Amino acid sequence: MATPNTPFTTPGEPLGNDDWMISRKLDTICLFDVDGTVTIPRQSITPEMDMCLQEVRKKCLIGLVGGSDIVKIAEQIGGTQAIAKYDYVFAENGLVGYKNGVQFFEENIQKYVGDDDLQTLINYCLKYLSDIRLPFKRGTFIEFRNGLINVSPVGRNCTQKERDLFEAYDSVHKIRATMIKDLEEKFAHLNLVYAIGGSISFDIFPEGWDKRYAIKHLEKDNIKNIYFFGDKTFKGGNDYEIYNDPRTKGYSVTNPVETRAHLYELFGS
Fold first, then answer.
1. Closest of 206, 203, 253 to residue 227, by C-alpha
2. Which entry of 18, 19, 27, 33 is annotated as an active-site residue?
3. Which of 156, 195, 240, 247 is the most exposed place for a label (fewest CB within 10 A)?
């Protein structure tokens, strides 16, 4: 949970005091989830949010950690060249890592789990999805990534309006949560984790391959203060583990506007 004091202030020190702005804190990072935190899900970052984050970067390190692959994250933050605007960008929960715009790390799920077990899991998911009746379905129901498998009952090719409609439908009918419960029982022997992220899908990955995976990279670089901002901080959400990790100070938000409000409280105008 977030605490009232920050690495930039001492108790009783006003945020407007310029002394804490003299030098950039290289042992401190503000680490942000992407969808629902710095952008509306699958939408582009606004100029206001982009400017806000770049102002924060003058005070400390900044980074992104998302469940999506690097292509999707880049699309949302302004293109591939925008990756270098962040000190760290972690795609696929940290299984693909970029530092100052250059990739430095990559892990893959098939090497860890094995192709036979992965194919059994994927086949089961496809059959399960074929039996679900929804108000509508589109395309790309399973997306294979380096560090995880992304499953979307409604299909990732739906429009923004359809995303919103499915999210509302899912909040009532628990389509994703019910499927996850079934998979947890069927594939308990694989020690996999299932985490709801975004508005239309959930991720499947090995135990320990949640967003906390990114922390190991930060610790290697002697980053001691990690401030995390995310919207899916509830149990079963893909921000839950890193938000509750004792190595981070977590801020739970519901949208980018709320993220900016927290940053304003931390850094002032």
1. 253
2. 33
3. 247
Query: Is the same domain home to 176 and 131?
Result: yes
Residue type, 47: P
Report the C-alpha gap between 72 and 91 in whole angstroms.
9
* Residue 115, marked binder: no
Kindly report the CATH number assigned to the domain that includes residue 118: 3.30.1240.20
Domain co-membership, 221 together with 97? yes
SS3 195: strand
CB 22 within 8 A of CB 58: no
Would you say 33 is a known binding-site residue? yes
Q: Which of 35, 170, 210, 239 is catalytic?
A: 35
18 is catalytic: no
Residue 4 above 50 pLDDT?
A: no
Tell me whether residue 94 is in a domain. yes
- With both helix axes pointing from N to C terminus, report the angle between 47-57 and 256-267 in degrees, rounded to the nearest 10: 30
176 known member of a binding site: no
pLDDT in tens, 16-73: 444 444 589 999 999 999 999 999 988 999 999 999 999 999 999 999 999 889 999 9
Mark whether 127 and 158 lie in a shared domain: yes
pLDDT score for 42: 83
pTM: 0.74
The tokens for 111 are 């090497």
Q: Please say if 115 is a catalytic residue.
A: no
